[in-house]
Specification:
- By secondary structure, the chain is an alpha+beta fold.
- The protein has two domains: 17-35 and 252-436, Alpha-beta prism (UDP-n-acetylglucosamine1-carboxyvinyl-transferase, Chain), CATH 3.65.10; 38-247, Enolpyruvate transferase domain (UDP-n-acetylglucosamine1-carboxyvinyl-transferase, Chain), CATH 3.65.10.10.
- 29% of the residues lie in helices and 25% in strands.
- Strand 22, helix 12 (388-400) and strand 23 form a beta-alpha-beta unit.
- The longest helix has 13 residues, at 252-264.
- It starts with a strand and ends in a 7-residue tail after the last strand.
- The structure holds ligand EPZ.
- Ligand EPZ binds at residues 39, 42, 109, 135, 137-142, 180, 182-185, 206, 210, 322-323, 345-346, 388-389, 416.
- Ligand EPZ is lined by residues 39, 42, 109, 135, 137-142, 180, 182-185, 206, 210, 322-323, 345-346, 388-389, 416.
Length: 443
């Protein structure tokens, strides 16, 4: 027997295997709202450890990852108060510098705590963030950079221990060159350097909008940072940072996902708020595929009639974002012609190909490259999301498919998309979140 209840009612412990049931083939129309950026909010939350004052963050998305980060910070002694999309973080009483393993293991972004804890406490002990479905996710650049700032860092039994030697326990500014423009490493090192003694430069820094958002927050807290958004960031350390009241940028990956929902259903759909320069590469590729856009003061309307094949390669910002590779592949599975997608960022981020093939997509793999021959019609099928963005890609494919698609893997989806089905249903989709009674026959 299948029970259909609102997600707020069901609890994971009582009902298992939640899934989305999508009736495909419906056009979308209207306005779809973009929440605050998950990949900014998580690191901005960690910045609360850098000050004894209260940090107020607005436009924080209601996601399970945000809840997990709140629990990790609370375990360190931070007082966390959430009200709607606002969260107050009071790091006055940090009681320990070692977030508990069982919490850290559930959220890779918890590794963002190591930089601020080290800068604030002179030591930090954070479990090595595990790999995940898309790759091994190393933290070599983070560790190398912390050592360049004077920390002694050891990794034993899966735990990273960082200590600042000497009486002051204060990091010392230095020169850091990243072998790869790691987003997380750039953010970790910016936070650590903000309170260091002296000047730090980070070369080959990541240029993602979330890096700029963090720099803007730190500057609002009293930090001295120049060059965020360029390959070289300079930080002049200060003695202390104060609190701030700061709004998180809109989520460019959620916005891109919604633009792709408009494109795959060949609809006219307005997505807002959107900061166009955060989506340059994505808008360019969608235009190349045949979409047109109208920009207004806060959002963008996509108009999609015919979709043509395009080639894309994922790259660090400002290149095409790896987080939209899977959702874009769903679109190209329905395009006219043969497309090529090269995934250059993560070593295992093409698992959604097999799931799209179950829906009738014609895709040939060659290493990190997928050749997608568009088909006239995908067919609805039971599919599994294998990571956060692959789950979103399956929802998009379900919107366009003939018949019903059921998408499992919502534990991934809910990490990065707040009420995805509610937002899509409000513009014409037909998506139901269903739960099976324990022990029910899986169909
Ligand atoms: C951030 O992860 C995002 N997560 C990811 O979003 C995003 O896909 C990624 O940046 C790339 O844009 C958050 O911001 C919380 P990286 P991060 O360090 O910081 C290699 C999503 O779906 N690398 O820039 O972990 C690494 O293996 C998630 O929202 C090293 O080799 O990404 C990867 O191949 C998924 N050594 C590449 O760099 C290192 O020391 C990019 O990783 C660090 C990274």
């Amino acid at each position: 027997m299948t029970v259909s209840v609102a997600p707020s009612v069901a609890t994971g412990s009582l009902l298992s295997q939640p899934r989305l049931e999508i009736t495909g083939g419906l056009p979308l129309a209207g306005d779809i709202r973009v929440s605050g950026a998950k990949n900014s909010a998580l690191v901005l939350m960690a910045a609360c450890l850098l000050t004894r004052d209260t940090l107020r963050l607005r436009n924080v998305p209601p996601l399970t990852d945000i809840t997990a980060m709140s629990e990790i910070l609370a375990a360190l002694g931070v007082r966390v108060q959430r009200g709607g999309d606002t969260i107050d973080l009071d790091g006055d009483q940090i009681t320990q510098a070692a977030p508990p393993y069982e919490l850290v293991n559930s959220l890779r972004a918890s590794f963002f705590c190591i930089g601020p804890l080290l800068a604030r406490m002179g030591m930090a002990q954070v479990p090595l963030p595990g790999g995940c479905q898309i790759g091994t996710r190393p933290v070599v650049e983070h560790v190398k950079g912390l050592k360049a700032l004077g920390a002694q860092v050891t990794i034993e039994h899966g735990v990273v221990t960082a200590v600042v030697p000497g009486r002051s326990h204060r990091l010392t500014g230095g020169h850091i060159h990243l072998d790869c423009p790691s987003v997380g490493a750039t953010e970790t090192l910016m936070m650590a350097a903000a309170l260091a003694d002296g000047e730090t430069t980070i070369d080959n820094a990541a240029q993602e909008p979330e890096v700029i958002d963090l720099a803007r927050l730190l500057i609002a807290m009293g930090a001295k940072i120049r060059g965020a958004g360029s390959p070289t960031i300079t930080i002049i350390g200060v003695e202390r940072l104060h609190g701030a009241d700061y709004a998180v940028i809109p989520d460019r990956i959620e916005a891109g996902t919604f633009l792709l929902a408009g494109a795959i259903t060949r609809s006219l759909l307005r997505v807002a708020p959107v900061i166009p320069e955060h989506l340059g590469a994505v808008l360019t590729k969608l235009e190349e595929a045949g979409c047109t856009f109208e920009f207004d003061d806060s959002g963008v309307t996509i108009n999609a009639r015919q979709i043509k094949a395009v080639d894309l390669r994922t790259q660090p910002f400002p290149g095409f974002p790896t987080d939209l590779q899977a959702p874009f592949m769903s679109l190209l599975a329905t395009a006219t012609g043969t497309s090529m997608i090269v995934e250059n960022i993560f070593e295992n981020r093409l698992q959604h190909v097999a799931e799209l093939q179950r829906m009738g997509a014609s895709i040939r793999m060659q290493g990190n490259t997928a050749f997608i021959e568009g088909v006239a019609q995908l067919s609805g099928a039971p599919v599994q999301g294998t990571d956060l963005r692959a789950s979103a890609a399956m929802v998009l494919a379900g919107l366009a498919a003939n018949g019903t698609t059921t998408v499992r893997g919502l534990e991934f989806l809910d990490r990065g998309y707040a009420d995805l089905e509610g937002k899509l249903n409000a513009v014409g989709a037909d998506i139901r979140r269903l739960y099976e009674e324990p022990g029910a026959k899986m169909n």
